[in-house]
Amino acid sequence: MTPLIRKARPDEAAAMGRIVAAAFFDLEVSRWLVPDEDRRREILPVHFGLFTEHVAKHGVMYTTNDHAGVAAWLPSAGVPDIPDFDERNGAACGERVEFFDLLGACFDKFHPHDEAHYYLQFLAVRPGMQGRGLGSALMAPHHAMADEHGMPAYLEASNERSRNLYLRHGYEDRGDPIHATSDAPPLFPMWRVAGR
After folding, report:
1. Which domain holds residue 54?
2. Residue 51 counted as domain residue
3. How many distinct structural domains can be found in the chain?
């Protein structure tokens, strides 16, 4: 049965951040960001909450009534910076903030700033709910809108498994994998032409 996908409300932003933190907890890039599991449990919900709060104000998030997953989208233009991000992120990330800053700089460097698009900042499905088609269902409404408006989409896949999901939905690799540092895990920039 296809789950009911709906737009997240602004007051659900923190809950959306916790979904991302749970889904991304064991990713290689998350282990690189914060090797200690206890610190990772503390840091990730607050860090990702900064971004989901921002998307709630300037983009759109799709979720389910039971908060099994979230797709967070931003337009490529007209979005201000997160207010007081350095201070708030520094407080959240503590001694690991340098690694988060390196990753953020990597994302910014390779982001296609000169081409209009929708940015899939996060697609996250809670552990235990993955592999059931929920990620595809969460992407579907915005892909339909992008197709209607002739707008491409961009994302960074966190591993080969997610990259394969996006390939099935019309995304293609946009250049080589990117790395925040020489010892950081690869991430995969991907681009979807409208109508794929």
Report:
1. 6-192
2. yes
3. 1
Whole-number Å distance between alpha carbons of 168 and 15: 28
Q: Looking at residue 101, which CATH number applies to its domain?
A: 3.40.630.30
Q: How far apart are CA 129 and CA 67, in angstroms?
A: 11
The token pair that represents 171 in the structure block: 């995304």
Amino acid letter for position 169: H
pTM over 0.90: yes
Residue 57 zone, left/alpha/beta (φ > 0; ψ -120 to 50; rest): alpha
Regions of the chain with pLDDT less than 70 = 1-2, 196
- Note the pLDDT of residue 3: 76
Q: How many CA atoms lie within 13 A of 86 on its CB side?
A: 2
Say which residue the tokens 């064991």 belong to.
26
